[in-house]
Amino acid sequence: MRFFKFIIYFSILLVCPLISSAQQASYSLSGTVSNPEIKSLYFTESSFFSNVKPKVQKVDVLDGKFSIKGNFTEPVPVFLSIDQDFKKDPATTKQFILDSGNISVLIKVGLNDALISGSKAQYDMQRLSSGQAPYFEKLNQIGKDAELKSQSGISPDSIAALYRIPFRDVNRELLEFQRSFVKENPTAFASLLLIPSIAGSKFNFFEADSLLKSLSSGIQNCSTAKLVKDYIDSEKKTSLGAVAPDFALSDTSGKAIPLSSLKGKYVLLDFWAAWCGPC
Q: Which of 115, 129, 120, 121 is nearest to 3 (CA)?
């Protein structure tokens, strides 16, 4: 699923140790299996944090039924799979977001087509994925068209000139949809996960901070939100709209010119290297 590609991106950003003091909630997962060949399943509780080891447990399917109960502090990505290693065969794996309450799983033929209900976090993520799908389809089509042009011998510069504006416009539309989703869904865990992506797309971490503060108190107080805030705060130092950190460089006569002395003026910084031909 596309949203798990996003989870991978998110986990790269958040590699800090997870320290949680949040109140634990309970979940109850009940499954119905119509396929008699499925005798057991593996339930893997993963994390949005790249340095947290997944928890795996084997679940027996008895008379077409199985159940899993437990506690957790906030929504997490989980996997139901035939193999102990859920990454081994995506076709026999179902991924979704675990949330508090009663969750139902209906497996008619295979895990890949299993139906999940009862998880608000999963439902919100599905709405986000569905809303983003048209924009990703447009971007994929632009990429395919550009590849065809390249195969026909058209130069990279010509291809870039042809597709730069359409690509930019679709990305702007996607970003606007993402902003609206966060603002309209302050209680959605998906909104929280979306904020680092919004911030990175325009390097505007002041906007990201404002979006984070617009979420419900329940979302803002979870461990993931605290790490998102730490990430935003660290990036705000050099964010779009921030006061540039002061430094000094010598001019052609050897005189040191501090950046602060040019306050109120437009300053062009040209970064180059002697080994860089285009520079």
A: 129
Do the strands 248-250 and 256-258 form a parallel or antiparallel pair, or are they unpaired?
A: antiparallel
Helices within the chain (DSSP H only): 2-13, 120-151, 156-184, 189-202, 205-213, 217-220, 223-235
pTM of the prediction?
0.79
User: Which pair of tokens denotes residue 63?
Assistant: 């008379």
Closest CA to 94 of 5, 8, 4: 4
What pLDDT was estimated at residue 180?
97
Decide: helix, strand or coil at residue 178. helix
CA distance 172 to 182: 16
Q: Rounded CA gap, 203 and 200, in Å?
A: 5
Tell me the CA end-to-end span of the chain in Å, nearest whole number: 41
Q: Give the model confidence (pLDDT) of 226-242 as tens digits.
A: 999 999 999 988 888 88
Q: How many CA atoms lie within 13 A of 264 on its CB side?
A: 1
